[in-house]
Design goal:
Layout: E1 4-9, H1 14-20, E2 27-33, H2 39-48, H3 52-55, H4 71-77, E3 81-86, H5 89-93, E4 102-105, H6 119-125, H7 130-143, H8 148-160, H9 165-174, E5 182-188, H10 190-193, H11 210-234, E6 240-244, E7 250-251, E8 257-258, H12 265-268, E9 269-270, E10 272-275, E11 282-289, H13 292-300, E12 321-325, H14 330-338, H15 343-349, E13 353-357, E14 363-367, E15 370-374, H16 381-393, H17 409-417
Parallel strand pairs: 1-5, 1-6, 2-11, 3-4, 3-5
Antiparallel strand pairs: 2-9, 2-10, 6-10, 7-8, 12-13, 13-14, 14-15
Helix pairs in contact: 1-11, 7-8, 9-11
């Protein structure tokens, strides 16, 4: 029996993770880095074993491509039951159900299900007084082809912003009878949405976002408690449990907020832990990438397929790793234009950037203001830039854009709540 679970704590920064997740009985990777700055390209890399430029999954081409085999497909071919319980609404819209025999949207992502009543769309299109529109909506939940109880629950949670995906996942795990060859992927969004308010802005300073930071830290503590319960619920069914974040968040550092732009370490230096048989609680300083999760899962499941990743549970060859920024998502550009930002400024932030992390842990990366370097150790500035150019030159770039996925209007409003705009 080889059962594997991968749990993504969407948007949880490493410094917050380190404060509260000291209960994890496995290997903690202190030098883990994301291959990009937000969910879609990072998961594209985790699922394909390719950097975003190679998979063709990034800010300008978000849909998971049909012509590339992804991790759950490879496992399914080898007889695995592949399950995903996903709270990330954008992943649900961009083809990340590919290869899963069971794909359950949870929390806010339930709006993608046809049998959940589209409250916002109905209310916004109604010409009735608000109280009457809600009354008619409730009647629709009861008498039309919708799941009544779930629709009522979703409507209330959307109105009060009280989605609790972690609780849903724990309950789902408790009622699931897992077999002998299982792959389970879980995405939890509490850290992504806990600190967002109605005055969403992608720019600002630290003091302006102090309250957001405080709420974010409290959510990290809450997530730790609930994830410990989730771990205790599934640990007897899964020999391998991989726990990570896909990216971090900015709270006014560098004059930026959220994770729209850049490769700063607050976005790309991420938590990663693996609980596995015969692995004691240890910390490893190896420089690794979330892309390595792809090969790690293949190795423990004894499935062979090409991958840029490395098996994190074996001795790792020292080599530099890449992180990529492909610009601003098109809908975010539209938002900035509506806010009156000049085309010159938008173009500045919409320029591709790359970063490199060497085997010594030096981090050099491009910014709108030029080259930046952190944790440079013994590596010289010129050396880092040369190594970055050489690494980028090895990419087998996929420049063909995926087919644009039209996102329904009622789902766009929920994406806006999450800062995706």
């Amino acid at each position: 029996m080889t059962n594997i679970a991968v749990i993504t704590l969407d948007t949880l920064r490493k410094d917050v993770f380190d404060r509260f997740f000291d209960w994890i009985p496995g290997v903690n990777f202190e030098n883990a880095w994301a291959p990009s700055h937000y969910t879609i390209p990072v998961h594209g890399a985790m699922f394909t074993g390719k950097y975003p430029s190679e998979s063709g999954v990034h800010a300008k081409s978000e849909k998971l491509r049909e012509d590339i085999l992804v991790l759950p497909e490879l496992l399914q071919r080898e007889g695995y039951t592949t399950r995903a319980w996903c709270e990330n609404l954008l992943m649900c819209q961009q083809g990340f159900d590919k290869g899963f025999s069971q794909f359950i949207p949870i929390g806010r992502a339930q709006i993608t299900e046809e049998r959940i009543f589209p409250w916002r769309k109905y209310i916004s299109e109604s010409n009735k007084p608000t109280w009457l529109a809600y009354s008619l909506a409730m009647l629709n939940c009861v008498f039309e082809d919708y799941e009544t109880v779930r629709s009522f629950k979703f409507g209330w949670e959307a109105k009060t912003n009280s989605f609790n995906g972690t609780e849903e996942v724990i309950n789902q795990a408790k009622k699931t009878n897992f077999g002998d060859r299982e792959f389970l992927y879980i995405n939890l969004m509490e850290a992504h949405s806990s600190h967002l308010d109605n005055e969403f802005e992608p720019f600002g300073d630290i003091e302006e976002h102090r309250n957001c930071w405080d709420n974010y830290v409290k959510t990290g503590e809450y997530l730790s408690e609930r994830c410990e319960e989730l771990y205790n619920t599934i640990k007897d069914d899964f020999e391998y449990i991989i726990l990570c974040s896909d990216h971090g968040e900015l709270f006014g550092e560098y004059g930026l907020c959220h994770h729209w732009h850049g490769l700063y370490s607050e976005l790309t230096h991420v938590p990663l832990a693996i609980i596995a048989p015969n692995e004691d609680s240890t910390q490893r300083s190896d420089v690794v990438s979330l892309l390595d999760i792809h090969q790690t899962v293949l190795s423990v499941s004894e499935v062979e397929h090409p991958s840029r990743g490395r098996n994190l549970l074996s001795k790792i060859d020292s080599e530099p790793i890449l992180t990529e920024y492909h610009g601003i998502r098109p809908s975010q550009i539209e938002y900035l234009q509506e806010c009156g930002m000049s085309e010159e400024t938008i173009q500045k932030y919409d320029t591709r950037q790359n970063g490199i992390i060497t085997s010594e842990g030096s981090f050099g990366f491009e910014t709108v203001n030029g080259w930046n370097i952190e944790n440079n150790g013994n590596d010289k500035n010129e050396y880092l830039q040369r190594e970055l150019r050489e690494l980028v030159s090895t990419l087998e770039k996929n420049e063909e854009k995926s087919e644009e996925q039209r996102i329904p209007e009622n789902i766009q409003s929920h994406l806006s709540d999450l800062g995706y705009i």
